[in-house]
Amino acid sequence: MIENIQKALKNIMSIADEANSYISSMEPWNKAKDGDIDSCIEICSEALNLFKDLTILLNPYIPNVAEDLFDLLNIEQTHYDQLGKDCLKEIKPFKPIITRLEKSEFEGILD
Description:
The protein has helices at about 1-25, 30-35, 35-60, 65-70, 105. It has a single domain (about 1-105), classed as Isoleucyl-tRNA Synthetase, Domain 1 (Orthogonal Bundle), CATH 1.10.730.10. By secondary structure, the chain is mainly α. The two termini are about 25 Å apart. The protein is built from five helices and no strands. The mean pLDDT is about 90.
């Protein structure tokens, strides 16, 4: 059972790495700076849909976080049949969902 969870999470992280590579290689920030707004919007829309797909995949593992992310994306909680589909219309303004822990906050936990 644990091995299956580890394998699933490893595969999800691999998809996230590919999404990050895609966004980095497409450089939407440079497209916007160069005035190619249509390309920038297309790339960012694709990135948001990839983010939506990752949220769907992570939902069984971090349901409370996924619920907040679905709210941010302004969509009802979706299911696996929505993977790869463009179902985003308008997202809500960004707000932090998870904050980075400082080393001092978890030092005693790992002992």
